[in-house]
Design brief:
By secondary structure, the protein is α/β, with parallel strands linked by helices. It has 18 helices and eleven strands.
Length: about 425
Amino acid sequence: MTRKVCIIGGATTPFDYGPSGWENPENGAAECVREVQEDVPEFHLRDVDLMVYSHFSVHFAHQLAGEWIVHDHLGLVGLPHFRVENGGNTGGSALYAAALAIMSGHHDVVGIVGWETMDSVSQSQGSEFIAMASDIRYELLVGGIYPIYYAAMANKWMRENRVTEEDVAAIGAKNRNNAMDNPKAQWYRTEHRHITVDDVMGSKLIAYPIKKYDCCLMSRGVAFMVVCTEEYARKVNPDGYVTIDGIGLSSCTIRAGDRPNYPAWAERYGPGYPDMTEFGACRQSADFAYRMAGIDDPLHQIDFGEIHDAFSTSEAQIYKALYLTDTDGVAQFLRDGETELTGSIPMNPGGGLMGYGHPVGATGLMSAVEAYYQLCGMIPKKHLSKRTEVPDAGCGIVNSHAGTGTSISNFILRRCA
């Protein structure tokens, strides 16, 4: 049994590193639920028949089964629930699980709450916790952390694709500047300034070629979303829902260095792909989502994207994995500003992880919430102006990403009318 999956509402707390106006995940979840109820007065929490919780690491909150506390605080005793954890793709995986629950016919209204409190530790300790999602018996023992892994991938990828440091620095500037009209975004709430490619290039070197402003923001934050049947959507929010027309979830090796000549990828895409520089899981999950949604020309059928920009370089690599460009054209694609607000397919108009923030369990949901706002014409209400509104947006892609491309999800969202 397969049914259409819809989103009727979503919200986030402000993302920040430090005081954010909410004390703990359960209070943040309640704030998000309240905002959705204000946007959709006919939605009631009692209509929910399943809760999915999205939380990456118990290390940050020092609390096992934190979803029990959030569930109890929301007064949902008796309602089935479970927690999803899948690295940086935790939010996307939770949305995937919720969509499957609706498609199966077993549930009609599913709530998703995601969170992370990464400011409970120092940033160096936070980097160590995140690095524990690599193989602790090997990489972590020799000091491996994710900026190093991505830098190694990026260095080779940029050389092979004739992409310069300035080309990818433009992404870091773009996403932070997009966040300047978004009061929930961490960049808006902290440094709050427009930056240039020169600012990115001049920022502190983290791991060549990645610099400080090429990196996402460690954050605390909570997100909430309601996924449901089209029957329920038409009942409670007939003029303000979107459909999830395509879903895809795929996996790859933990270590990028294990990917060259990997038999499973060679069978799908031919020899040489994805090597250690491309995201095979992104391409395959996009294939699944595109096929389901009837997308055969993504550059011209998709109007915008909210995608996982852990680093400027990884966003650039994702463009290729999503079939928006190829090896011969990617450098010019970047230089032509195709993913700027004025380009053919704006990417991360909400700010992305570099502008909005990256509290891991909430991040994929934040991306989906921002895409929902775009498709429902809510950007002027949720942002400070229409500057980051994509005109006449009818179709968007949401991408969530874990590890060095170890788990990646893609979703195609469309405006309901």
